[in-house]
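User: What would this chain look like folded?
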Amino acid sequence: MKTVLRSLLSLALIVWLGAEIFFPIVAAITFGTLQPDTHTAGSIVGHLLRILHNMGLVSGIVALALLALAPAWGLFKPRAVLAPMALVVLMLACTVYSQFVIIPAMERDRIAAGGAIDAVDAADPSRIHFNKLHNRSERVEGIVILLGLATVVLVAGAETTRI
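Assistant: Here's the prediction, encoded as structure tokens.
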């Protein structure tokens, strides 16, 4: 049973972190393939980002639940799960922020710009704000990746401690 629970915890982290690492590659290929039509590429990438966030939210909740229950099941010492749990909570917070704050604000800016953000002047306030949010979104996703890597390291270290 312990192996199944550890495997589920690993799988939750693998799904989330793997998707986070793979997403920039998908975005780059999408924009490269649809280069003249950045509006369509942006729509596709935006839709994929929402899917990525939903996967992250589910994976994060599963990982958090498993980490919370791990000491009761004899998987880890209680102190060994505190740091990984805190990191997963931060990852969830970043994902929620991106999904429910940044993306809707970017969508409002896109609509205010007439639908295609690249079609308006670079000095347009909607485009400036959109680009600012886009940069913030990239930083938030990068933070999620770093927190995820740190979580994996801490969980791996927790597995090596004797119970």
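The chain has four helices and no strands. If you want, I can go into more detail on any region.
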